[in-house]
Input
Amino acid sequence: MINISIVLYNTSSEDINNFLSSFSQLKLEFNLILVDNSETNSLEKYFKEFNFIQYIHNPSNPGFGASHNIALKKSLEDIRVKYHFVVNPDAYFKGDVISDMISYMNTDSEIGMLMPQILNEDGTVQFLPKLLPSPMSILLRKIKSPFFIYNDFINKYELRFVDQSEIYNAPILSGCFTLFRCTALKEIGLYDDRFFMYFEDWDISRRMHKKYKTIYYPKVSVYHKYESGANKNKKLFKIFLASAYRYFSKWGWFFDFERTNVNKETISQFK
Output
């Protein structure tokens, strides 16, 4: 048995149809837990015919991590549930990628977290596995200049130099499509709900990476509509800045020796 959770917020019918079509392909037993942070429960009508869906209306909207925690707690309380997937509502896939990811996770009990290759809708790769960030890396990634510094930086920071078919252990994985081992989550804890949005996936990746492998598994692919909302919306940019401040206040700003060591270990895999 596996659980899958998706947090909704005024989600479009196109996105809903895409992820419902994706999950209808699965052959293994699963529960899909939908936590709807919309002001009204108008989205519920899309899900009434599906017996594998549990719909939870959550209009208080406590944020991405806190909302997924509602579903994650259900998984940790149920001894039948070994794995839990956290999925964005704008992610979808073709074929049974879920079973393939679980099969790989089953090969190594030291894997606590795993993500597939993430593709844009045109089939190009989103470079989402990363090294542990510093404040300077966040700034450089936003301003993308000067080019002679940025190009070398982004190639290393986002591990773009690694062969796209290689499986490896990365300290930062994206939260858009994540497989968790439930026993590992019991040990390291759930999402830090002080992050309303942004950086909560980096925070839980870092905590998981300290005790378990956090694996990038590009043998299967998932499509994701990458919106980059913080670059387009002033409100989201303020939330991004608040989350960045919270992240570096928690882990260290310019003096973070653990970050230095972890990043060196990560790069050493490819030498």
In short: Strands lie at 2-8, 30-36, 53-57, 83-87, 91-92, 111-119, 168-169, 177-181, 213-224.
